[in-house]
Amino acid sequence: MNQLNQKILTSKQIVKKTAFTNGENHFGILTGDALEQLKLLPSNIFNVAITSPPYYWARDYDVEGQIGHEDTVEDFVNKLADVFDEVKRVLHPEGVFYLNIGDTYYSGNGQPKGSDPRSGSRNFMRKKLRAVDKSGWDIPKKSLIGVPWKVAFELQNRGWTLRSNIIWNRGNSFVEPSALDRPYRQYEHVFLFSKSRFYSYNRQALPEGEEDVWNIPIERVKRLDHNAPFPSELARRCILTGSPEGGHVLDPFLGSGTTLDTARELGRNAVGIDLNPDYTAGVSEYLINNGITNSEWNILEKTIKNDSPFFSEWPGNKMNFKKSKSRKVDTNE
Questions:
Q1: Which range marks the domain in which residue 165 is found?
Q2: In CATH, what number is assigned to the domain containing residue 196?
Q3: What is the pTM assigned to this prediction?
Q4: CA torsion 135→138→140→145, rounded to 10°?
Q5: Is beta strand 16-21 parallel, antiparallel or unpaired with respect to 26-31?
Q6: Strands 187-194 and 213-215, bridge-based pairing
Q7: Which residues does residue 8 pair with via DSSP β-bridges, in sequence order?
Q8: Residue 61 falls within a domain, yes or no?
Q9: Does an H or E element contain 27, and which?
């Protein structure tokens, strides 16, 4: 795996699908471009999609065709929105979509010099001129770009219903050596979207006292060789509120595999996609090492085409507004 990290991988190098099972649930991993791989999946099947895509010019994942290195923020937003158009297609009619995304600053000061000993993963910016370091933008230098909201508003324009802006309080902030005149960043956005006004959601699964501010510390244990894994507790909350036992979970930017592994622990079926074959190979190896066996893709697909047998009795399904005509609460908000 480390040998793969030492060279630039092309998006056409490896495109494959693998399936696994633990006897009760089924898991699939697609290696390749997220937009193209999503097109291989049936429509209207996943109860919940959870993902954290590459942030705009924050990392270099050494794969040709990676999202996050576009020349303009508009191109970045549109590429993500195109992927999420397909996520919407494969999402169950009553499904929900959790999107974790961070922001980026506009520098405009040219390519940084020297090195950043505290953040080796960010040293790629010393090797190439990032779009956010070029001059000529129509906002002042040192400005926060507002990428998360640009993405959220574009998804609204494309028909998604934006239901909540959850603040993920990461606890300890990341030390940012270049941030001498502002606070360090301590939170990120987790947007909750639905396909329509009427959807299934189990808010009873939220921890007491935590509504749209989730206090979840960063996991210091590094998953695989990945620079930006998100914590399993974050995935757990999304899965429990968004799917029944035996339900179907999707992550179109699989990365270190947190979503898929947490779905496994919670008794859900799951499919993950990633462009980097190093990551998908690592997640596959992890599953095998944890007692999961290889299976056939057609068995996985047959499973996820059917609703969970627990769906009709799931508290989140009973909360579906369309079905709860006798409820005396205002469902307009």
A1: 2-105+144-318
A2: 3.40.50.150
A3: 0.86
A4: -100
A5: antiparallel
A6: unpaired
A7: none
A8: yes
A9: strand 26-31
Contact criterion met (CB below 8 Å) for 57 and 75: no
DSSP 8-state symbol, 312: G
Alpha-helical (H) ranges within 10-99 are 34-38, 73-90
Q: In the structure encoding, which two tokens stand for residue 100, read together?
A: 């974790």
Please, are residues 260 and 284 in contact by the beta-carbon 8 Å criterion? no
Question: How many Å apart are CA 236 and CA 190, to the nearest integer?
Answer: 13
In a domain, 110, yes or no: no
Residue 186 lies in a domain: yes
DSSP code per residue over 120-171: GGGGGGGTS--GGGSS--SS-TT-B--HHHHHHHHHHHTT-EEEEEEEEE-S
Report helix angle 277-289 to 258-265, nearest 10: 20
Q: Please state, in angstroms and rounded to a whole number, the distance separating the CA atoms of residues 238 and 234.
A: 7
Count: domains in the chain? 1
Three-state DSSP state, 28:
strand
Q: Is residue 31 part of a domain?
A: yes
Say if residues 49 and 250 touch (Cβ distance below 8 Å): yes
Are the beta carbons of 190 and 100 closer than 8 angstroms? yes
Secondary element (H or E) of residue 70: none
Q: What is the pLDDT along the chain (333 residues), one digit of tens a residue?
A: 333 333 334 444 445 899 999 999 999 999 999 999 999 999 999 999 999 998 886 666 667 777 777 888 899 999 999 999 999 999 999 999 999 998 888 765 545 555 554 545 454 444 554 555 554 567 787 788 899 999 999 999 999 999 999 999 988 766 677 778 888 888 999 999 999 899 999 999 999 999 999 999 987 665 555 455 789 999 999 999 999 999 999 999 999 999 999 999 999 999 999 999 999 999 999 999 999 999 999 999 999 999 999 999 999 997 776 655 544 444 567
Residue 177 contacts by C-beta under 8 Å, 6 or more apart in sequence? 116, 118, 119
